Amino acid sequence: MTTARAAWLDETIRTLARHTWVGGIWLVGSLGRGEADAYSDVDLVVAVDHTAPTTVFTDPVAGLGISGHILYRRPKPRNAPKDGAYLAVGIDLAGLPVLVDVFVWPAATATVSAGATVVYERDVLPRSTLGFIPLMDQHRSDDRRGSDPDAPGTVLMLVQLAGKHLVRGNQPKLAGICDQLAIPTDSCEVTALRTVLDQRIDTVTYMDSTEGVRAVHRLLDLIERHLAGTLGPAIENSPDQH
Fold it and tell me: In angstroms, what CA-CA distances link 4 with 39, 62, 218?
């Protein structure tokens, strides 16, 4: 997973840097801080100028030309920077889902948060002493819509996040995700997460979710093996953004 994620990220950065309207690219979250593990998400911020195509804002992944087989999408407009865009997607890497959060930020206000890693900048970007979330709170979109809690993309993403926090032993974050999934905290384990996948996502109605369900099940297989100790020690707790 780690090797595939790194290769995908290198390709993505090269692709984005070719666009003349991309002014900068940086990573936030655990990858930005250099604290990532195999289960870490990719939190990618892209600064674009006024010449960027409209599709960059209506569909950031397609508009930016980000490669990879998408297993699910989870839009949440209120996560976007003002006049920008946001989309979370699960991308199939090495047969497993890797969560990628894409933030499109207009270059006129784009600012690199403290703890971020800049991987490309056409011109020097302004820096802030604030962390990503506090900085975003100062530049939050006027669109206050959240995500659809019953959409397959939301369920797939939340189950994936719950699995990550479970294997890390991060009980506070696990409890928060399980609450969103309506799973009692004391029974939020791999078996319960599998049940949510199978009962809340109808792959007959949502045929395009079939691959995503299978991939998240494979991820849960891996997490079970980690928890059982057959893949070595469990992952250390890591303070990701989610």
Answer: 12, 20, 16
